[in-house]
Amino acid sequence: MQDDLFDTAKMRSDGTVVEVLADGSERAFPEQPMRPMTEAEIEAAAAADPDARPMTADELRKARRIPRIKTLRRALGLTQEEFAERYHVPLGMLCDWEQGRTEPDQPTRAYLTVIAHDPDGVCRALQHSQPT
Question: What angle do CA 127, 95, 51 make, to 5 degrees?
Fold first, then answer.
């Protein structure tokens, strides 16, 4: 059925999404949106969706500003093992944080914030602190 995008699309290994035609051939999706929306329509759609409701200014002020470890690790292009080794974080603990079993404590959250702002600087500092 052509109505359902997920029945006719696939993701290639390079991350691009293509439409799969009935004969099995592939076609790139058009660059322009499927249904162009004005800024007002986008805002109205977001406001109508209870799961995507924009935060109020008060909610934004109260929001915790802690880097999400999995997002941070992926943004750095590192595997769990590489991140754990580079930043001296126990691998099991990293896995627990990423899977939501535990949360980093306050000093670790501060450390993750520093990594998020200057990952290369943290890496250099840790290399200099290693005994020769």
Answer: 120
